Amino acid sequence: MFRTSMNKTVRFAVRQLCSTSHVPHVCVVGAGPAGFYAAMHLAKNINSIKIDIIEKLPVPFGLVRYGVAPDHPEVKNCINQFTKLAKQKNINFYGNITLGQDITLSKLRQHYDAILLTYGAEEDRTLSIENETARNIIAARNFVGWYNGHPRDKNLKVDLSGNKAAIIGQGNVALDVARILLSPIDQLKKTDITEYALQAISESKINELYLVGRRGPLQVAFTIKELREQLKLKNCQTIWRENDFIGVEDVVNNLQRPRKRLTELMLKSLKEQKSQTCSAHEKTFRPIFFRSPNKFLVNNGSVSGIELTCNKLVGDKLEDQKCVATEDKEILNCNLVFRSIGYKSIKADEALVFNSSGCVSNENGRVIEDHTTEELAKLYVAGWLGTGPAGVIIHTMSNAFQVAKNICSDLQTGTGSHRDGFDGVRKHLNIPIVDWNGWEKIDKYEVDQGKKSDKPREKVTCINKMLDIATK
Question: Looking at residue 375, what is its pLDDT?
């Protein structure tokens, strides 16, 4: 279906590339969904092309493997497409290679016709408020990595012995964290959540979880699917604050359909809670709106609460109002805080230039450079590194396809020089390299380990162990 959507320029480029003896070599840096979707489009629309996918970790799939919640296995189905692509003869995966550390961008550019950067956003944004470094204030990104088995987060210290926790932020990641903490343990046992996380959560004393948002119900960033799942959790009651919804019902019919359906679900839940009784043994999920963290309260070096600034809406139309801070403050007592206010990309190589939005400077995926030469590969960027950390996998797919389409178009104007691709890059490396065959060994090992506990897999969290398995 992608071929029929190509414009005339791209079709000409494909015909020209197929009729010449020059086989373009393209390097994709980052083996997450953006990288694989872009490679899919390139492989489909250029018959004669070689694509090398380079990844920092020894294993592929990026956020699909380490970001998607373990109780959302259907979201990981795209891995089947990626695997089919990776098994093509002209596609190669090379793991355990870090851009800027094991190989510089300038070196890569000497061996390829085009380089696509898709390594995502791997750091979290901070609040920059008082006591933010206290114990048990944890980035949601790290917590997600912890229960999903990311090697970076396997030793994360999470104290779940208190009964109250709070999440700062109201996006889908925040709801993932809430759902994992509040789900019945028997439900989590059926997933690929790490065994150490499963054990810790089974012993958790948390029975009251707050979801704190700066703005109101009309501006929440989570989607209806995630909220519906949260509302259906067994032995967990959602409790809204009625004052947060003043005037919302009056404007709900004026909202666009996705926002309208989401708001209607919140209003329905609000009405239903009036007829529910709360058992002392039930867990409670408490979304609160119009509150911003002003500072964290600390006791013996560990967080004991949050001082919240009360916000208000200003403006004529409720759906278009702006949120501004007041002088009023509130205290929310809690023993654990998750910060879930977004991710940011890192500057993996000194040659990269970032814009004010924290992305690699680009125009429609083409990296903006002061100067370059025909001897160096053209640079491109896709996914969160180029757009910012927003949207779900389908948005990443759309962006990756568009950037790949531009690469197809640009390759027709290449010099025709014969680049040696990874054969040349390998000469600069002095590290173990994990190819697709090595990943399949790791994959089989994880699945076999999972079977012992009736789980889909038990992920290997140690990089050295991954390398041992892959190179046997």
Answer: 76
- The domain in which residue 91 lies consists of 3-122+345-433
> In this structure, are residues 366 and 378 in contact, taking their beta carbons and an 8 Å threshold?
yes
State the residue for tokens 């404007």.
251
- The model's pLDDT over 172-190, given as tens digits with 9 standing for 90+, comes to 999 999 999 999 999 999 9
Residue 346 DSSP symbol: -
CATH number of the domain enclosing 302: 3.50.50.60
Domain boundary among 339, 354, 378: 339
Query: Does residue 116 share a domain with residue 130?
Result: no
- Report yes or no on 89 lying in a domain: yes
In whole angstroms, give the CA distance from residue 58 to residue 439: 7
How confident is the model over 101-129, as pLDDT tens digits? Answer: 999 999 999 999 999 999 999 889 999 99
- Is residue 118 located within the same domain as residue 129? no
For residues 234 and 134, give the distance between their C-alpha atoms in angstroms, rounded to a whole number: 32
| Tens of pLDDT, residues 394-441 | 899 999 999 999 999 998 765 555 789 999 999 999 999 999 999 999
Residue 128: left if φ>0, alpha if ψ -120 to 50, beta else—which one? Answer: left
Measure the CA–CA gap between 389 and 142, rounded to whole angstroms.
16
Domain count, the chain: 2
First to last CA, the chain: 41
DSSP 95-151: ES--BTTTB-HHHHHTT-SEEEE-----EE-----BTTTSBTEEEHHHHHHHHHT-G
Strand ranges inside 358-451, DSSP E: 362-363, 366-367, 378-381
Each residue's pLDDT tens digit, 231-256? 999 999 999 999 999 999 999 999 99
Is 282 in a helix, a strand, or coil? coil
| pTM to 2 decimal places | 0.91
CA atoms within 13 A on the CB side of 236: 23
- Structure token pair of residue 330: 């509130």
Does the pLDDT at position 2 exceed 50? Answer: no
Q: Tell me, what amino acid is at 355?
A: N
Residues 6+ apart with CB under 8 A from 138: 156, 158, 336, 337, 338, 339
